[in-house]
C-alpha cells in the first residue's frame, strides 16, 4: 500500500488546486519556512478523518479553509483527495486503487467520499483499521508524537503500539458491541416499564369491563321487568274495560226494559 497522489484545493495556504504525486520509495518535501510543508502533513491527516483541530494547529475547523489574501478572496470550501495504491490488498476492498475525499464548507457542512461515492467518516475509519494509516495512527508522526513516545505518557505509547500490533480494530468493535449492549439493556428496561404500564391499564379495563357487564345485566333485568309490568298492566286494563263494558251493556238493557214497561202503562 502506497500513497500515490494528494490533491489539495482551498486547504489552508493552498488556494489553487495543487497535485502532489508520490513515487514508490522515499519522498522528501523541502522548502523554506512558511512555504506550506507542514500544511501538506496537515492535509494528509485531515483527509484521513482527523477531528481534533489542535492536531491541525488551529482553534476551529473552519480555519482549514483558505481565508484569502490581499490578492485573493477567501474560498467557501476546502477539498482534499488522497489516492492510495492497494495492489497488495492491504485495505479490505476489492479496488486496487482507493480514492478518499473530504470536503468542508464554511456553513459547517462536511462530506466524505470513498472512490467518489458518498460515505461516512466511520466507513473511512473502518477501512484503515490496523493498517497503520488512520487519522490517529503512526503513519503521520509529528514532533510532539515522537516526544510522547519517548516520554512517560504510557497511554499514548500504548495507543501507538496497539495500532501497530493490529488490535485497535478489535477494541473498537468491542466498544461498539458494549454500546449496543447498553442500548439493548436500556430498551429492555423501557419495555419492562411499558409492559408494567400496559398491565395496569389491562387490570383497570377489566374492572371497567366487569362494571359495564354488571350494568348491562341490571339494565336488561330492568327492561324485562318493565316489559312484564307493562304486559300485566295492559291485561288488567283490558279486563277492567271488559267488566265496565259488561256493566254498561247490562245497565243499558235494564234501562231499555224499564222504558218499555213505562210505555205500556201509559
Protein described:
This protein has 266 residues and is an alpha+beta fold. The protein has a domain at 2-137: P-loop containing nucleotide triphosphate hydrolases (Rossmann fold), CATH 3.40.50. The chain contains 5 helices and 6 strands. It has helices at residues 37-47, 121-128, 143-150, 154-165, 168-265; strands spanning 2-9, 18-21, 77-85, 97-105, 110-114, 117-119. It has a 6-stranded antiparallel sheet. Helix 3 (143-150) crosses helix 4.
Short account of what is shown:
By secondary structure, this protein is α+β, with helices and mostly antiparallel strands. The chain has helices at residues 37-47, 121-128, 143-150, 154-165, 168-265; strands spanning 2-9, 18-21, 77-85, 97-105, 110-114, 117-119.
CATH level-four homologous superfamily name of the domain at 2-137? P-loop containing nucleotide triphosphate hydrolases
Q: What fold name stands as the CATH topology of the domain at 2-137?
A: Rossmann fold
Instruction: Report strand %.
Output: 5-15%
| Major sheet summary line | 6 strands, antiparallel
Strand order of the largest sheet: 2-1-3-4-5-6
Annotation field: number of helices: 5
Provide the structure class: alpha+beta
Q: Element order, helices and strands?
A: EEHEEEEHHHH
CATH architecture of the domain at 2-137: 3-Layer(aba) Sandwich
